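Sanity check. The docking grid for tryptophan depends on where the pocket ends up, so I'm generating a full predicted complex first rather than guessing from homology. Inputs follow.
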Amino acid sequence: MSKKIVFSGIQPTGNIHLGNYLGAIKNWVEMQDLYENIFCIVNSHAITIKQNPNELRQNTLNLACTLLACGIDIEKSSLFVQSDIDEHPALAWILDCNIQMGDMSRMTQFKDKSQKNSKNINVGLFNYPALMAADILLYQADLVPVGADQKQHIELARNVAIKFNRDYGKAFKIPEPLIIKESARIMGLDNPQIKMSKSVKSPNHAIFLLDSNDEIERKIKRATTDSSSNIIFDENRVGIYNLLSIYELLSKKSRSDIEVEFENKGYGDFKKALCEVVINFITPIRDEYLRLQNNKDYVLNILKDGAEQVKPIAKATYDRVKELVGLQ
Ligand code: TRP
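Predicted complex below; grid placement will be based on this.
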C-alpha cells in the first residue's frame, strides 16, 4: 500500500524559534517515515506582507538550512521553494474563479492581518487562501499538518476542491487537516500568556535555534515563573508549566519522572537543568546550520532538485484542471 501524501508549508520570515520547532518542525521530522512528505517554503505567501527583496531571498535560504539542520531528509522527503513552481499561482487563479467573495470574506486570518497591516491591505493578502489551496491541491495531498489557526484555510481548500470536482470532473483529492496537538504550544518565556512568536521584539521572549549558549542561559534565567516553589505540571501556573513542557519535549522524560527529579529542588536547579537540555538540543542543529550556510550552492542545489522532483506532479494536476475548465 502506498503511503499517504502530506503537504506542509512554512513561511520564510525570520528565524525559527523553539515554539516553531516543537509546534511544527519536530512533527515534520518525525512524520518522514510514516508518510510521503512534501515540504514547501512558501515565499510567495510571504510577499502578502511587504518584504525587503534581499532579506526575503536570504530568509528563504536560511529556512532551507534550518529545516535540513533539524532533520528534514531529502532522501525521504521533497523540499522545495514555492516560487520555483509556476503552477501554484496559475492554479490559484482558476480556484479564484471558483471561490465566492462571501466565502473568502469570512477568513479570520485576513481580518487579523489587515488589522495589523492597515497600510497594506493588498489583494494578495485577501487571496492568500486560494494560493494556499493551490499549494495543497496541486500535489493531491491526503493530509496537511497545521496549527488550529490554519484550519479555516484547509476547510476552504476542501470546499473549493469538492465544488470543482463536482462542477468540472474529478481533478483533486480532498485533503484532511492534521491538527498539531496543543501540548506543543510553547509560550513566550517573558510572557507565558502569549504564544512564543518571532514578531515579539523583547529580548527574552523566544529561544531561537541559532541562539548562542549565553543567550539561551540568559533567556531561561530571566524566564517568568511564579512565587510558588514546587515544580509540578500545573496548567494554571503558566510560566513554570511552559518551561516544564519544553523540558518534557526535549528530554523525552515522562511528566511523573520530571516531577520526581525536581522534588525538593528550587527553580534555580530546574532552570539549570533546562538550560542544559536546551543547549544539548540546539548545539548540533546550530553546528549543522552553520556548515550548510558555508555551503550555499549545495543547499541551492537541493532546492532545485526538490522543485524538479515535485514539478511533474504539479504539472499533471494543473494540465488536467486546464483541460477540464476548457483552457486547453
Ligand atoms: N498559511 C500557512 C501558515 O501561515 C502557510 C502555508 C502556505 C501552508 N501554504 C500552505 C501550510 C499549505 C500548509 C499547506 O502557517
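Relevant for the grid: The chain has a mean pLDDT of 95.
Also worth noting: The chain has 13 helices and five strands.
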